[in-house]
Design brief:
It is a single chain. The chain is built from twelve helices and eight strands. The chain has helices at 12-16, 26-38, 61-67, 83-92, 105-112, 116-133, 155-168, 184-194, 214-223, 251-260, 269-283, 290-297, and strands at residues 7-10, 43-48, 75-79, 96-102, 137-142, 172-177, 203-207, 228-231. The mean pLDDT is 95. Bound molecules: 3-hydroxy-3-methylglutaryl-coenzyme A (HMG) and magnesium ion. Residues 15, 176, 178, 206, 239, 248 line the site of magnesium ion. Pathway: Metabolic intermediate metabolism; (S)-3-hydroxy-3-methylglutaryl-CoA degradation; acetoacetate from (S)-3-hydroxy-3-methylglutaryl-CoA: step 1/1. It holds the Pfam family HMGL-like. It catalyses: (3S)-3-hydroxy-3-methylglutaryl-CoA = acetoacetate + acetyl-CoA. InterPro entries: Aldolase_TIM (IPR013785), HMG_CoA_lyase_AS (IPR000138), HMGL (IPR043594), PYR_CT (IPR000891).
Length: 298
């Protein structure tokens, strides 16, 4: 049976903008976050504290956190790869943080320059500091349905790393199909396997739409009892270390589907569509949301 409510985690300002070629100004990054919170999104990943040499688009994330208009109840999260990033996220006033690991060794090396087990070791001091600060930590796991370097990824491996992230103290594990290669049957199988180690209530889905499978994967995950999904307004973005990765599934498209199924999210589709149109204009790109294009015409 389908959930009555879904929590949408808006990752456009981070996962989206980190891979857009055209530079976005600080003012525009701030406006994007503020428009998203005004549309009713309750959890927005506003930036990341990674090496600016690796991801120049996310440099200056501290200033984004410093200038947004904070709405009460909204969680503004930051992606952090290590203690240095964690300290910066705290100083910037992030509500919560997210650490990120990979289910495949090849992607771990290319994305964060270390093995999976080394990355988990780097998270230990991050988790300790988060504990002291009373900050919640979310865990991302990449390449759960395939890796651009290693190919097939074993669901047992995904389950094992997910279980480690949970044991370290992550409140939720977001399973990322980083390169969008998964299909619905594989998604169901994956969640079935991972849920033996991590309760379904603590799993989220993070689908990229590279092969047009994101919506059916979300539906498959909904049927498996997952009720938290990451999405990106206008389908912005991709991943600089996963060639060919297109943007995340578009928030507008997910919302349209959930609305049609009578599932509550608290997000206003009209405002979200207008936000998507606005950011596409800013970036000079086509709107990656079908719903955004369709509703934008009327
Ligand atoms: P490294 O070069 O191995 O790190 O990079 P290092 O510890 O040797 O440090 C090298 C330099 O980086 C030093 O500066 C550090 O200070 C600096 P230098 O002394 O040479 O001038 N540095 C930092 N600067 C700012 N903030 C930091 C930080 N840490 C070190 N936190 C590192 C290792 C992890 C830092 C690097 O590989 C990195 O930043 N990678 C980030 C990659 C990234 O952001 N990828 C995109 C996000 S993941 C994603 O999109 C997937 C996801 O959406 C889910 C999915 O779709 O699957 C989450
Ligand atoms: Mg992603």
């Amino acid at each position: 049976s389908l959930p009555q409510q879904v929590r949408l985690v808006e990752v456009g300002p981070r996962d989206g903008l980190q891979n857009e070629a055209r530079p976005v100004t600080l003012v525009q990054r701030v406006e994007l976050v503020d428009r998203l919170s005004a549309a009713g999104l309750g959890h927005i990943e506003a930036g990341s504290f990674v090496s600016p040499r690796w991801v120049p688009q996310m440099a200056d994330s501290a200033a984004v956190f410093g200038n947004i208009r904070r709405r009460s109840g909204v969680r503004y999260s930051a992606l952090v790869p290590n203690l240095q990033g964690m300290e910066a996220a705290i100083a910037a006033g992030a509500t919560e943080v997210a650490v990120f690991a990979s289910a495949s060794e090849g992607f771990s090396q290319r994305n964060i320059n270390c093995s999976i087990s080394e990355s988990l070791q780097r998270f230990a001091p991050v988790m300790a500091l988060a504990g002291e600060q009373g900050m919640a930590v979310r865990g991302y796991l990449s390449c759960v349905l395939g890796c651009p370097y290693d190919g097939r990824v074993d669901p047992q491996q995904v389950a094992a790393v997910s279980a480690e992230l949970l044991a370290m103290g992550c409140y939720e594990i977001s399973l990322g199909d980083t390169i969008g290669v998964g299909v619905a049957s594989a998604t169901r199988q994956l969640i079935e396997t991972v849920s033996r180690r991590v309760p379904r209530e603590q799993l989220a889905g993070h689908f990229h739409d590279t092969y047009g499978q994101a919506q059916s994967n979300i539906y498959a995950a909904l049927l498996e009892g997952v009720s938290v999904f990451d999405s990106s307004v206008a389908g912005l973005g991709g991943c600089p270390y996963a060639r060919g990765a297109s943007g995340n599934v578009a928030s507008e498209d997910v919302l349209y589907m959930l609305n049609g199924m009578g599932i509550d999210t608290g997000v206003d589709i009209e405002q979200l569509v207008r936000t998507g149109q606005w950011i596409c204009q800013v970036l000079g790109r086509d709107n990656g949301s079908r719903v955004g294009r369709a509703m934008g015409k009327v």
